């Protein structure tokens, strides 16, 4: 039953064919990540924890193979003392890597990403869609976009990548 | 005949010939040519015609100062009004000459223009010697960019260099906008700069005289540049008329290139020895204190009239001075003053610490003429109607004199009266000349007259470039529900950035027919709709109830867990700004819904109140709009459908009351079910994490099939709610409507100490009995359609006796409700006191007699919500 219901999930970019693997630039959706917004003075524990603002964090964990109204990660973070909100289905995660990744984003986002260190995160608009941008490496970025904007952003990214695909 | 020299031309590549078509005539050129140099090489003297006079016009400049050579590009998608001096040729380039005005291209522009943001510690504009020095000196400061509008910039250590890039606007806080010309489309650069160094150089200006617009009259420096850059001889026999030393240098360069320089005229009474020697060594006669008085020729120059006699020539090269290029300096508010030493306007008070200016643009001493130049603008004689100050606008000395005669003395007024400097070239050539001539006309010093204000963009920008990739489907973000694919076959209604299904037509069914069928299904059977787009905010903390009591007009803190309450939000002015339901999920968790279009504004407002006025409240807010997919199941048979989907849920009216919510599973999917109704019918809203949205829609459709479940769209939703008198904020309200005006005094607490808008609602004006109230309308004849937006006037009012007193307007109108008859909602002066009255609803002067009713036209007793 659980497996059947899990198989019914559709990520925001399901069926769109979004993705790119070119020299210098890759793009892909990582669907069904466990995403939880936490309000707490101290950084919550986790593998990928982004600071969104004062006392405001986004925790990005692996997909949870459970059928529940909220992902288990939210309950764990709440138990650890933070105010936690499950936003796993509210946003989806796009992963961009390669030397052109930051330039690609600079076609539609006025933020200076070069001063965002590895582990750092900024919020703003990319191609008119509200996003959080987290840096996981010198040439790798994670883009958290609202589910409703995901197809627009995917279309925009695929178009913006045109000069970097040859 | 080709005017191309056998050798020379620093910018052209003779190994790469290209063919260009001008007005259907094929000409040969080289890669690196501009259209202007290609036309000059092909000896095409005509580059355009006067916009009003139709007079033939020739090439004057070599860059952005060119007033005449603006062409219609026909190739590569086409583009109107392109400056030939800045248009790089390519094989297959085709253009048409213009008379000062292009035409829009009807076909979609297939060029790929785009946008790029970048960030720099220092940006230097201009790749000349001063710019390179500034860039090299700045290189230790971090990211340093040197940009230049020429075809190439030599590499510089520690500096990024961009060629073919023109800075078009400088704004406050170090924001610079530049255009990079690329072969596959232009790029609009937004540069955020720690500081900006302007090394924009100076632009040559001419001199004016009778028939100064005849093809063959060029700027002397530009003429020399065509030799140096493109290996093109601008004429065979030349007269050179100058007012400063750089003009003399150009004369020598032209002579050395093989032009027969018949004479040099200098307005000054002496010239420096090195120039005198150089000219004399080339046997060029020099006439001091001399001037050109006119020209002759058919469509091109053949004779130059001067104070020293007439000369047969095909080139008249003139140079009146050099204007420091202070446009970018002026954009963010930098001031300029006239300098006699420079004979131009030079920067003085800066626009701020971030911007400095160097080199010729600053009028630095090294860029001043060897001898103090004369400030000279025009010949002393000639017919004012044939002395062209601004050939691009066909504006003459006569026009300027008319402006003066009309009493105008300010350069800004003269500009607007004569239109000088208002063309696509923005008076880059004509501006300072006009100031000089106006000063002479007024008998005042040039500095006292001053310049007009330079504003961005420095060069014209096409709309296509400004749009960049934000066109077509990317012109604005589209928001899609996570079950969009299931409803995508329906016509869509735009609600903010959302696409929502409008109605679900069957084969050959019209909007009205489909809506009538959908309404009937919900009133008598069961319907389903995608309600996912409503804004959702999760509020957490001990003090959420306190916050809600302050932002809603009614009481929320008393709401029990498991219950839902409808609330109205007002602004501080007491006017309705939003409405929606809020469910209490636990002691400390509340889920608020907002209208589809207002979600972000409501969250922002709540955050602002919390952060600025009530920081002591223990509340956090998180947008979860996209976390949930919501399917509304509505109609008398909805309980059967939900019962089939959620076997664990007791949906009987006694166990699951109106305005309550339950956790359960729906078709195996974890869900929150709410008994909320926007139709007046028994209804359930099924909320699931949105990645199950499509699965939920499928499950509801399947479980509802035995009951004939009917998908419905926003139009039917609007009809259903309008029959119940439920207002839509933003449609039935317009920022001037209080909850009382809507007849919702029941939702305004009288007990609460305070809430946003309470004080304003106590004002006398908010309590006037004749305020506009929400009412219902039906056509008196029972069949006439009422048009949304109609004005309400007295029945039988004479619509020709203006002004016709207006009593209100129609906010929502529908061709048919449950009884098949048209009805409407309206805001009407003292409407609640006028039930039964007959008025005319007027649209486009056609009156429809209507009877005023209460806003609720269906199930007035509210007996249907429990099924």
From TrEMBL, chain A:
Stored SUPFAM superfamilies: Folate-binding domain
Protein name per the record: Sarcosine oxidase subunit gamma
From TrEMBL, chain B:
GO CC terms in record: cytosol
Species this protein is from: Nocardioides lianchengensis
Single annotated GO MF: oxidoreductase activity
All residue ranges annotated as the Aminomethyltransferase C-terminal domain in the record: 772-859
Domain FAD/NAD(P)-binding: 163-328
Protein family per UniProt: Belongs to the GcvT family.
Name of protein: Sarcosine oxidase subunit alpha
InterPro entries per the UniProt record, alphabetical: 2Fe-2S-bd_N, FAD/NAD-bd_sf, FAD/NAD-binding_dom, GcvT/YgfZ/DmdA, GcvT/YgfZ_C, GcvT_C, GCVT_N, SoxA_A3
Domain called GCVT N-terminal: residue spans: 488-752
Residue ranges of domain SoxA A3 in the record: 385-469
Key word Plastid present: no
Keyword terms: Oxidoreductase
């Amino acid at each position: 039953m659980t497996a059947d219901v899990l198989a019914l999930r559709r990520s925001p970019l399901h069926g769109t064919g979004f993705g790119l693997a070119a020299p210098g630039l890759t793009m892909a959706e990582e669907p069904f990540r466990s995403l939880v917004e936490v309000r707490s003075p101290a950084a919550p524990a986790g593998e990928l924890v982004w600071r969104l603002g004062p006392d405001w964090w986004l925790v990005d964990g692996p997909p949870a193979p459970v059928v529940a109204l909220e992902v288990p990660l939210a309950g764990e973070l709440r138990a650890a003392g933070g105010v936690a909100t499950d936003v796993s289905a509210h946003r989806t995660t796009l992963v961009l890597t390669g030397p052109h990744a930051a330039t690609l984003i600079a076609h539609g986002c006025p933020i200076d990403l070069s001063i965002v260190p590895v582990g750092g995160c900024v919020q703003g608009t990319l191609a008119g869609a509200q996003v959080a941008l987290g840096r996981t490496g010198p040439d790798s970025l994670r883009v958290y976009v609202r589910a409703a904007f995901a197809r627009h952003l995917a279309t925009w990214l695929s178009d913006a990548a045109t000069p970097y695909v040859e | 005949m080709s005017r191309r020299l056998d050798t020379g031309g620093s910018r052209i590549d003779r190994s790469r010939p290209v063919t260009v078509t001008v007005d259907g005539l094929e000409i040969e050129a080289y890669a690196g040519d501009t259209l202007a140099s290609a036309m000059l090489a092909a000896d095409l003297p005509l580059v355009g015609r006067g916009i009003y006079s139709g007079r033939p016009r020739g090439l004057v400049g070599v860059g952005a100062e060119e007033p005449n050579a603006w062409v219609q590009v026909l190739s590569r998608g086409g583009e109107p009004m392109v400056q030939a001096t800045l248009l790089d040729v390519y094989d297959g380039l085709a253009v048409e000459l213009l008379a000062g005005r292009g035409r829009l291209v009807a076909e979609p522009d297939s060029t790929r223009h785009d946008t790029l943001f970048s960030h720099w510690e220092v940006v230097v504009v201009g790749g000349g010697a001063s710019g390179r020095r500034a860039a090299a000196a700045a290189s230790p400061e971090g990211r340093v960019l040197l940009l230049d509008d020429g075809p190439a910039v030599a590499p510089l250590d520690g500096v990024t260099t961009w060629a073919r890039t023109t800075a078009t606007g400088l704004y406050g806080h170090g924001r610079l906008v530049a255009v990079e010309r690329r072969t596959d489309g232009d790029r609009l650069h937004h540069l955020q700069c720690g500081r900006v160094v302007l090394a924009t150089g100076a632009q040559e200006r001419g001199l004016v005289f009778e028939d100064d617009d005849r093809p063959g009259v060029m700027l002397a420096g530009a003429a020399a540049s065509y030799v140096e850059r493109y290996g093109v001889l601008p004429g065979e026999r030349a007269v050179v008329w100058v007012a400063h030393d750089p003009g003399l240098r150009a004369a020598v360069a032209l002579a050395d290139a093989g032009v027969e320089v018949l004479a040099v005229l200098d307005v000054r009474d002496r010239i420096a020895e090195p120039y005198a020697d150089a000219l004399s060594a080339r046997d060029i006669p020099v006439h001091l204190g001399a001037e050109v008085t006119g020209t002759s020729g058919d469509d091109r120059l053949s004779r130059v009239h001067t104070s020293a006699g007439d000369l047969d020539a095909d080139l008249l090269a003139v140079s009146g001075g050099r204007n420091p290029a202070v446009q970018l300096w002026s954009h963010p508010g930098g001031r300029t003053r006239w300098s006699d030493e420079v004979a131009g306007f030079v920067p003085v008070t800066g626009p701020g610490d971030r911007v400095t200016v160097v080199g010729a643009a600053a009028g630095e001493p090294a860029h001043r003429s060897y001898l103090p130049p004369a400030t000279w603008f025009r010949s002393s004689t000639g017919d004012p109607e044939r002395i062209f100050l601004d050939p691009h606008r066909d504006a003459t000395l006569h026009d300027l004199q008319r402006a003066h005669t009309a009493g105008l003395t300010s350069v800004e007024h003269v500009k607007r009266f004569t239109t000088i400097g208002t063309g696509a070239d923005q008076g880059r050539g004509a501006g300072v000349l006009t100031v000089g001539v106006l000063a002479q006309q007024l008998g005042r010093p040039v500095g006292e007259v001053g310049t007009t204000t330079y504003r961005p963009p420095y060069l014209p920008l096409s709309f296509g470039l400004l749009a960049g990739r934000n066109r077509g489907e990317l012109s604005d973000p589209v928001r899609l529900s996570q079950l969009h694919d299931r409803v995508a076959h329906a016509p869509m209604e735009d609600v903010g950035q959302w696409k929502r299904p409008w109605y679900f037509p069957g084969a050959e069914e019209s909007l009205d027919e489909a809506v009538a069928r959908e309404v009937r299904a919900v009133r008598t059977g069961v319907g389903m709709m995608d309600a996912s787009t409503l804004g959702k905010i999760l509020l957490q903390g001990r003090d959420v109830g306190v916050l809600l009591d302050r932002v809603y007009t009614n009481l929320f803190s008393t709401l029990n867990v498991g219950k839902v309450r409808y609330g109205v939000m007002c602004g501080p002015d007491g006017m309705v700004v939003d409405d929606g339901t809020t469910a209490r999920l636990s002691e400390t968790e509340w889920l608020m819904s907002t209208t589809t279009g207002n979600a972000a504004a409501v969250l922002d407002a709540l955050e602002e109140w919390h952060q600025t006025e009530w920081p002591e409240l223990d509340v956090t807010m998180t947008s979860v709009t996209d976390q949930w997919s919501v399917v509304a199941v509505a109609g008398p048979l909805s309980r059967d459908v939900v019962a089939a989907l959620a076997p664990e849920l007791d949906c009987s009216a006694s166990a699951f009351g109106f305005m309550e919510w339950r956790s359960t599973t729906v078709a195996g999917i974890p869900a929150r079910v709410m008994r909320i109704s926007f139709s007046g019918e028994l209804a359930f809203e099924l909320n699931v994490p949105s990645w199950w949205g499509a699965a939920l829609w499928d499950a509801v459709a399947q479980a509802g099939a035995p009951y004939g479940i009917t998908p419905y769209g926003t139009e039917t939703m609007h009809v259903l709610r309008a029959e119940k008198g439920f207002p839509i904020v933003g449609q039935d309200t317009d920022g001037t409507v209080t909850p009382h005006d809507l007849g919702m005094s029941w939702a305004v607490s009288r007990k609460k100490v305070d809430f946003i808008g309470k004080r304003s609602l106590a004002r006398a004006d908010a309590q006037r009995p004749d305020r506009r109230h929400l009412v219902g309308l039906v056509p008196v004849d029972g069949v006439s359609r009422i048009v949304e937006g109609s004005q309400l006037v007295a029945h039988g009012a004479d619509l020709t006796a203006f002004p016709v007193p207006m009593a209100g307007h129609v906010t929502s109108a529908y061709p048919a409700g449950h009884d098949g008859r048209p009805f409407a909602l309206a805001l009407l002066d003292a409407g609640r006191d006028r039930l039964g009255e007959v008025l005319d609803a007027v649209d486009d002067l056609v009156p429809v007699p209507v009877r005023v009713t209460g806003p609720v036209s269906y199930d007035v007793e509210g007996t249907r919500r429990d099924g």
